[in-house]
Amino acid sequence: MTSENGNGDVPESDWVVRHEGNALRIGEEPLLIGRSARCHIVLEGDNVSRHHARLWAAQDVVFVEDLGSTNGVIVDSTKIERKTIVPDGAQIIIGKFTLEVGREAKHERGRVTTLRKTAIGEAVEIREKDEREQTLREDTLELMGSVARKALAIGKVQQAEETLRPLLQSVRDTAQRQGLPRKTWKTAVRLAGDLAKASMKAEWIDYVFDISRHDPHPLPVEFVDLAIALVPKIGSVDLGLVRTYVAAMNRRSGELNPKLMIQITELERRAAAVK
What digits encode the pLDDT tens for the residues 16-59? Predict the structure, then answer.
């Protein structure tokens, strides 16, 4: 249902999203939701990505889409995987925050905020700029990773470390601020594993658990096997980081491969044994 204004302009949607006592009109131009101050709905929390999701209405139907966030979007208890219809009265959960979507109520008339299209366009432009920067970072990480692997192949371990250290530190900083896209995380884990194997330094094992504790995805089996083999040889690793990650995986044990859980538990045991 839409309402025609007196000037004959484009009909205005009567869908709204409510958060902390405020109501924002949902229209055809997507509303950005995330931790960035440039989003339309700003949610400040560790589990919220800078540009987490977008919300819009088309043909009198409301849609929500996850923008590749770290921790996902839940609509009425279901984690969404793609663009999803949001029913009237539904709740959208992002991190610790709950947004309610519904029709504009009588008591809200005159109090619902309608954003100017220019403001929406500015936020979209900011998001697209950030996406381009993220793509550039991923491409650079892959490129420099290739250079480092060539150095490792001829035994130049220090050169490989010097090539990758600034980039991997940048990835760590991003992980601490806002989490990482899955592709970036997987690439960083793989490269740190290569450095750990070649240098026999505990710092690269610690690095993987450090970037993973902010967004605890199941580690690749190949890395867990490598860490199990290396930990007794390279000595002490940061047991606190390992245990933080293992605890996060234990909370998700019902959805993980049992073999992976056994391997992770064994890794913790070996890490504790060398303390």
Answer: 999 888 888 998 888 999 888 778 888 887 788 888 999 999 98
Check residue 65 and report its DSSP letter: E
CA distance 249 to 244: 9
Supply the DSSP symbol for 264. H
Measured N-to-C along each axis, helices 182-199 and 157-178 cross at an angle, to the nearest 10 degrees, of 150
Q: What is the DSSP string of 112-155?
A: -B---HHHHHHHHHHHHHHHHHHHHHHHHHHHHHHHHHHHHHTT
Beta bridge pairs of residue 34: 42
C-alpha pair distances (Å), 76 with each of 5, 68, 85, 100, 254: 33, 19, 11, 10, 21
Other CB atoms within 10 Å distance of the CB of residue 223: 20
Q: Which residues are CB-contacts of 191 (< 8 A; sequence separation ≥ 6)?
A: 141, 145, 148, 164, 168
From CA 76, how far away is CA 86, in angstroms rounded? 9
* Radius of gyration for the chain, computed over Cα atoms and rounded to the nearest angstrom: 23
In this structure, what token pair is assigned to residue 57?
């209405």
> For residue 248, what are its two tokens?
């996060």
